[in-house]
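@channel sequence for tomorrow's demo:
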Amino acid sequence: MARDTGFPDADAGYDFARLRRQAERARLAQWFTRQPADVNTILPFDEVIAALGATGKTVLGLQVVEVSSIVGSVDRTKDFDRYFRPTSSRLRERWQRIAAAQRRGESVPPVQLYRVGSMHFVIDGHHRVSIAIARGLTTIDAYVTEIHTRISPEGINAPSDLILKDHRRLFLSRVPLEGSQAEAITLTDPFDYAELAENVEAWGFRLSQEVGEFLSRTEVARRWFGEEFLPVVRMARRAGIRDDLTSDAELYMWVACERYRLVRRHIWDEKVFDELRDHSLRRRR
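structure tokens (generated this afternoon):
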């Protein structure tokens, strides 16, 4: 909790020292508990946008923003950790000067933020955000610009999560599903997105040969989802194949790969599903 002795410079110095201790304790806790190395790393805006794919922006103007929603930075990722605690003492002089000025009641301009989903990234005002956290403030005034992205930013908690988002974005550029169809395709291994994209493209090539005309990526994606993905998943669920896989996309991936490995043909019939069911039961024993 922020100290308030009535001496702004001393209180600002105490606040800084307290945040630095917290940052070091968090770093040691991460090391002792063998947590991922990036668990306390601030999210880098450029990498987040590269993974999600920017589609546009909207200037929202002055907003009141929850401090807890500020999780990233445009260009100061080395100076602060995930919770805007200073990562070194070299920030002390400026940090304490701004903090003391705030405690004396001097006016402070709003920070500038980018909004991506429910997350906010600091363009200007890193020290002010850090000071707000040190003082226990829950909101902060900010000029906000919202960034619209190709895929949802939901589920990003650490830089390591960006790999999965990046591969998902690339998958949707190759297989341009939209809305609920896109949401239905979720995988936990980022590299499975590339394998699934190749599977869909191969299916689309065979379909183009069958109908005797070129089909666009959008048409292939739409027909693959309705004519291949949904029927196969439904048949696999009815047959009780791999009940341990809760993701329909992961079930489809397993069934499609095992189907070809077992029967060497691009067909779906009851015999194929019987073989797949027996095979899945044997591998789980």
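heads up for whoever presents: Residues 8-32 form the longest helix (25 residues).
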